[in-house]
Amino acid sequence: MAQSIWHSTQLTKRCCRTNFPLRSKFAAERGVSEILMKLILFIAIGANLLSGCSSHAYYDEAQIFLGDVQHILISNGMCDNKQDCSNKQLVKFEAGGWSFGPWSGGGVNISVYQITGKAIVQALHSSISSRRTEMPTVSVYLHAYSTKHGEPKTILAEYAYQ
Asked: pTM (2 decimals)?
C-alpha cells in the first residue's frame, strides 16, 4: 500500500543545482508542464489587458442622434419639448462599445415608442441616414414601436445603419 502512494507522488526530474523537484509524476503523465501553465496564464492576462468595454463609448454620438429624433417628434406634435418627450418616455437609447485588441464593436441603439404613422418612421429613417453620413464609423440601430414603453412591443420598423 505504501508503494502505491510513493509512486503517485514520485518526482520525474530534479533541479541539478538545488535538487528541487520540477514536477510530479502525476503532472508528467498527464502532460502538464510549468511552461504550458505559464503560457495559459500569460494568454489569459494578455486577453484581459487587450480587451475592454466602455459604457461611455458612443455616448456623445447618441446624444446627437437623440436630439434629431426628439426634434422630429416635437415637429410632429408627439411632444412639446425635449423634456416632454422624456417625461412621456417616447425615446430610449443605449450607447456602448467593446474592443479586443484591433477589433471593436458597439454603437447607438435608439428605440422610439408610440409612433402613430409611417410618415414619422420615414422622417426618423431619413434623419438618421443623413446624420450618419457625418459619422460613418458609428453603427446605429433604430427600432420604432406603436406601443408605449413598458408594454408588449409592436414593431413598426427596424433599421440597422452600419
From this structure: 0.65
- On whether the CB atoms of residues 98 and 107 are closer than 8 A, the answer is no
State the CB neighbour count (10 A cutoff) for residue 139. 18
Copy the grid coordinates of residue 56.
461611455
- Please check whether residue 93 is in contact with residue 62, taking contact to mean a CB–CB distance below 8 angstroms: yes
Cell of 44: 489569459
Strand partners for 141: 109, 160
Strand positions, DSSP E, 28-138: 51-54, 91-100, 103-112
3-class SS of residue 135:
coil
Query: What is the tens place of the pLDDT at every residue in 64-101?
Result: 999 999 999 999 999 999 999 999 999 999 988 877 67
Query: How many CB atoms are closer than 10 A to CB 160?
Result: 11
Measuring CA to CA, which residue among 106, 114, 101, 105 is closest to residue 143? 114
- Cα separation, 28 vs 40, in Å, equals 17
Instruction: Tell me the C-alpha distance between 139 and 65, whole Å.
Output: 11
